[in-house]
Amino acid sequence: MDELHEAAIAYYNNGTMEQQSFAWQFFQAMDIDGNGRVSLQEYTDFLCRSAGLAWVHPEMFIELDRNRDGQLDFWEVLTLYYVARTRTISCRTCHRALNGLYFTCITCFDSPYGGDTFDLCVKCYNGRSYSHPHCLFLDSYVLLRSKRSHQPLQPPDNQNLPGDHNLAEENPERMGWRTALRAMEVALAVGTLGISTFCTIM
């Protein structure tokens, strides 16, 4: 989680003022009482009312709480914000969220038909506690280095998601986090390398 925390801060520090503002909106949507801290109750309430974050397990609160004070400050919530935009995959065997290094089936990843990837945590891959027809796997760091493209992905159009214009009136706290997640999506699309060819390195 330390590595994810540092990555979240790096994206924030290098983001535009608008992106930083969206990150604060995400935090404020979770900090219902406005005391500058997010309690476990506020955290779980936020997850319950945020369908897009249903995959986040409540136990992640403990992992996010770096100083173990029982509350999340802005920087700790910023880590959740980053995880929500980048780590929405889970191990196909134990179903835990993959928050760090993990293994991906290259055959599924490179499939021209799209579809889901087959991802495993290190423990399940190491223990061979999975059933899958393909045998070529790479860890997430090696996979990134093995993929190259001459043209980076283009950022999504700067358009609102369908129906977003009404969310602010209906539920202002939901509008804040949705807008913030959209901003992070644009930032990641700009900074992401496109994936084209596979170079065998192992």
Automatic annotation (TrEMBL):
SUPFAM superfamilies on file: EF-hand
Signal peptide stretch: none
Keywords: Calcium, Metal-binding, Zinc, Zinc-finger
All copies of domain EF-hand, residue ranges: 18-53
Family matches, as CDD domains: EFh
GO molecular function: calcium ion binding; zinc ion binding
Segments passing through the bilayer: none
Highest taxon, organism lineage: Eukaryota
InterPro entries reported in the protein's UniProt record: EF-hand-dom_pair, EF_Hand_1_Ca_BS, EF_hand_dom, Znf_ZZ_sf
Name the record gives this protein: EF-hand domain-containing protein
Species: Arabis alpina
